Amino acid sequence: MVITALFAVTQKRLLARHSGDAADRIVLANMVEATALLRLALRLRANDATAVSYDIEWADKRMQLNLQDVGGLIDLNTANPDLLSRLADDLKVSHDGMRDLREWRRLSLRLLSLQDFVRLTGAAPDSLERLRSAATVHSGRPGIDIASASLSALEIATGSSGTDEELRRHVPSVFSSQPTGTIFDVYLAADDGSSFAAYLGTIASDGGSGRILEMR
Questions:
Q1: pLDDT at 192
Q2: Which segments of the chain does DSSP mark as H helices, in order?
Q3: 63: part of which helix (H) or strand (E)?
Q4: Cα–Cα dist 192/174, whole Å
Q5: Mean pLDDT lowest for which of 29-38, 54-63, 68-77, 158-167?
Q6: Could you read off the pLDDT of 102-132 as tens digits, one per residue?
Q7: Rounded-to-integer distance, Cα 201 and Cα 197, Å
């Protein structure tokens, strides 16, 4: 009985270890793939700095690398307080959470990632996807560039829903800022007209070699 029990425990530990090793390999593979794609985005932008979408072939599939100027997103460190409040309302952040964020900003401390916002404010973990589509920590702008703004950022800035074209007409002028022109979130999308796109990371590129600022 004791031998059987010890064997069972040992087997569970081995399975757990191998499961952990497999998970680590998957994470590592994803990081390697994301790094390769971000470097490809930097090379493509160095060759054509006017484009924000590039057709590529990846893993024997037609794909697209889409670039979102972070000037079209709400910067969690520098956004107009009223715009930040609209974002908090959209994400249902508590008053205590926003108080902690305001104190953080008052002390001139910076959020280094969107995950920092979730941890600091106590926002629901499942709000990260919405946050990713609307916010950044890299633009340094008080508002959003209306022309390149994401649909989520436009919805939050206007407090309305609708198409990009409709919402751009209703963004308060106080929330309007310039694009960065050099810092972009990079997404990998299937070249089949579907709306799904996977966030890869953030790059800084002025048409030269550039660098990776953040990875998924």
A1: 72
A2: 2-47, 81-91, 95-106, 114-121, 128-134, 151-158, 164-168
A3: strand 61-69
A4: 38
A5: 29-38
A6: 999 889 889 999 999 999 999 999 999 999 9
A7: 12
